[in-house]
Amino acid sequence: MTLNRITSRRAKELVREGWDQRSEIYRPLGAAKDRTKHTDRDYRAWLAPIMKQVPRGGHALDLGCGCGLPTSKLLARRFDAVGVDISDVQIARARKLVPNGRFQRSDMTQLRYPPGSFEVIVSLYAIIHVPLKEQRPLFRRIFRWVTPGGHFLAILGSGRLKALEKGWLGSDSWMYWDHADANTYQRWLEEAGFIVEERKHIPEAGSGGHEMFRLKRPLEAHRARGK
Description:
- Pathway: Phospholipid metabolism; Lipid metabolism.
- Its EC number is 2.1.1.-.
- The protein is of the alpha/beta class.
- The protein is built from 6 helices and 9 strands; from the N terminus they run H-H-E-H-E-H-E-E-H-E-E-E-H-E-E.
- Helices cover 31% and strands 27% of the residues.
- It has a 7-stranded mixed beta sheet, with helices on both faces.
- 41% of the residues are buried.
């Protein structure tokens, strides 16, 4: 398989197949951390500033929710939470593991929601599996879905990477990554209209790490540059 010739459709099929096969390896039932070695405490810390600002009962969207642990579960304790993932297996697990959440199997780039549908949108380690050319338009849609004054939390790439891995997590499946560097992401997010409230590098053994962005849509909505 040639990386530079892979189509967007095929890339998404590989991501779906990879997660279908390795969902329980990446996040075993009862495990206190995932394969990135981040614990539930880490996820709570990333979400905490938003949780403190948004009243209970608001609407939250988890893009690339995986099996629902821990992000969708944390969101569903406080909000009317919807999780979306491309993997059938991940969604089936999420429905069992987070019964008070709502879950949808879908390609996040194909989602359409009315403007201002969510006070909180979260996407952690997920957009990095979306073909890069589809990410910038996705950020513009996410901006529209967030209520004025609402929040978007994302963990994205730190350095530019486009990669395929055969035998991912010891399986016979492939996995696909495609992400920009952190400065490019900040530019795209600001062009979409977001205010960057926090940017933090997350170091990880064996890789260049990732970048966390905690963002806010201004109360006075304005037309994003580049539309």
